[in-house]
């Protein structure tokens, strides 16, 4: 993933967006405040210096992410599933009740998609959505240290014989999956077929 470094004047705020290590497709935002005078001098002096500062902030961001977040993700990935889902229940409360992450947007979208449902049903769907969000987030982290046997136990394929028949034709094959639940686990499919 590429890194974006932007300067917003007059506040002279440099915002750095960089990926979190460990295969998690999320992003963290680190903001570094620089005085107006300093940024103005850097911009007047040379644009390359400004880009170099952004690059150094990027490196620092990666280092901080690796040092602090990767061990945390690794510890979460080593939890058994019982504790993982207990942590997921805790995250659900944080996302829904404390941070209130996009609650109005979710509610508006549910009302748009299900106009026939009453407020109670919409609220129930909303809560299930946030529980699913917490589960999928932690399952994605857990996947990084799961054994092949653990994944096969929890992610099962139906009609694999259809793929095996298509393999015999030696034609190109494209599989498409819905972006639903812990869809990342679908990569274990390569253990069932010998397609390149």
Topology:
Elements: E1 4-8, E2 13-19, E3 27-33, H1 36-45, H2 47-77, H3 81-99, H4 103-113, H5 119-143, H6 148-154, H7 160-168
Antiparallel strand pairs: 1-2, 2-3
Record keyword descriptors for this entry.
single chain, 196 residues, mainly alpha, three-stranded antiparallel β-sheet, 3 strands
Main β-sheet, in a few words?
A: 3 strands, antiparallel
How many distinct helices?
7
H/E element sequence: EEEHHHHHHH
Q: What helical percentage do the residues reach?
A: 55-70%
- What is the beta-strand fraction? 5-15%
Name the overall outline.
extended
Unreliable parts: 1-36
Question: Strand order of the main beta sheet, please?
Answer: 1-2-3
Structural class label: mainly alpha
Q: Gyration radius, to the nearest Å?
A: 23 Å
The overall pLDDT average reads 75
How far is it from the N-terminal to the C-terminal residue, by CA?
Answer: 25 Å
Strand runs, count: 3
Description:
The protein has 196 residues and is mainly alpha-helical. Helices cover 57% and strands 10% of the residues. The chain has a three-stranded antiparallel β-sheet, with helices on one face. A hairpin with a 7-residue loop joins strand 2 and strand 3 (27-33). Helix 2 crosses helix 5 (119-143).
Write a short abstract of this structure.
The chain has helices spanning 36-45, 47-77, 81-99, 103-113, 119-143, 148-154, 160-168; strands at residues 4-8, 13-19, 27-33.
